[in-house]
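Q: How would the structure tokens look for this protein?
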Amino acid sequence: MSQKLSAANTISQQQQQQDVVPVQEFGKDFIEKMENAPPVTEVSIDAMVLLKMINHCTEKVPIQVTGQLLGLDNEGVLEVTNCFPFPSSSSYNESISEEERNDQDDKYQIDMLQCLTDVNVDNNTVGWYQSTYMDSFMNATTIANQYQYQRTLGNKRCIHLVFDPLRTRRGELFVKAYRLSDKFIEAVKISYLQQTELSSMKKKYDLKNKNKKEDIEVLTEKEKLPESIEKIQITQEILATLNLSDKDIFDELPIQIHNYALVQAFLLDFENDEPSHLLAGYDSLDMANTQFLTRGLESLIEYADSLSVQQHRYQLYQKKLAQQKQNAKKKDKTQEEQEFMLKSVQQPDQLDYLMIANQLGNACDQMTSFSSQSINLSKIAELGMKKE
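A: Here is the predicted structure in token form.
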């Protein structure tokens, strides 16, 4: 079971284009218990919590919003029993500074958790939720935020719930639970160690030119994972070594939605006494699909353009690397110095490429599914009109 989290130490980080969820700091004893507990393999969310999240996300459309998930970890099943929203960027006065905004976010979270504690409601942080559109949540801000959660709470102890209000309006409840995969965490670790090694090589190279001798910093096991992944550069070599694709960034967890006994009894009774005006009919089919299709195609074009930009950047990197190889051979350099010269050519971050490829693939799948559904609806409506 998760223990009660302290809200005394709260960090709140803000990044561009999206509200970043604040993460709490925890003691060593709590973190050790979380790491030794069995990994979460399933998410169980209360229907009332899901409705609160849906209401928050739907009210703020088209603004993307975030919120905190609270609950318990019960032997591999993460039970989400409560949630509360975070203030969106539009709720702040534009004149206040970023520091003041961060302070207000900290105070808001502490006050909310304190109120929940006073009324004896679960206040254990188990993750966060976010609204999205056409899988736009797959970006650097989301990944950095989820990494911070997993690093704080334990690698497999918290989740990221994603809700798409536009797809839900079309009759398909779109809510999914994710966490960063082990492959991705390993890629971050390898990249961080490589960057640390390159920094040490640069320091050693500079000291050698200055005829100085100093101890080179060596990382301990606990320091092999960075506190943040904002400056991590995942290279093509790391992707090839780990066989990491765009589908391997997140692991999706199954979600079970449950109701209390009284709610379940009400739903069964309501189903038996269903009013006639709620019965399905051909006239209730949503045939207005032009707007959704247009937005989907615009997203596809945008993702394709971004992918083209990433490919162009990688081509420029390959040209610079070839030039550096030629310069290293011409100059009288040692093998170690040549290796440093090649590694000093910065490779474009392949994480950007993975995210764009994932967004493009998901958008294609959604458009294919949407088109198939629209064709089926048209055929059903046509048959219904002929019978009438």
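The first strand starts at residue 10 and ends at 11.

The chain has three domains: 10-180, 182-244, 280-388.

Upvote if useful.
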